[in-house]
């Protein structure tokens, strides 16, 4: 495999970080999480940024991180669920690496985020309602930038990492994945 970078997009609870770490290990690449990188660069957690600057302030910081990280080669990048909202981010992701959309059902997202308290968009809200609204709005954007769409329900991180590796090495089957959701 070349030193091409792989960018993982998808909603909260899709497993981007977990799959990304397995994929990086499998492919011998460096793993980077854009949310973690924002926290490293600012010295505060994302919840604090949302509290002080709102979502708009966070998205500006996330945009700078994605612009920077997508220029690196040989990384697996797990993006935040809303990274696809800005056209600039979508352009950088699509132009600079292979983009994989980890599609998770609403049920899986609810299950995987129910014990998490570090997701500002879900704090003090009806999680199901918010996750459903976010998925409806963001799904077309994930699909727009994706080279590969993978269903994550019922699969573990190792299986998903192998499917991505197979796809990138030209061994992926059309039944296992669909280009641009087709």
Defining traits:
182 residues, Rossmann fold, five-stranded parallel β-sheet, 7 helices, globular, disordered C terminus
Concise summary:
This protein has 182 residues and is of the alpha/beta class.
Q: Could you estimate the helical fraction of the residues in percent?
A: 40-55%
The helix/strand class is alpha/beta
Strands in their spatial order, largest beta sheet: 2-3-1-4-5
In terms of per-residue confidence, which ranges show pLDDT below 50 for 5 or more consecutive residues? 174-182
CATH class equals Alpha Beta
How would you portray this structure in words?
The protein is 52% helix and 12% strand. The protein is α/β, with parallel strands linked by helices and 182 residues long. It has a five-stranded parallel sheet with strand order 2-3-1-4-5, sandwiched between helices. The longest helix has 24 residues, at 46-69.
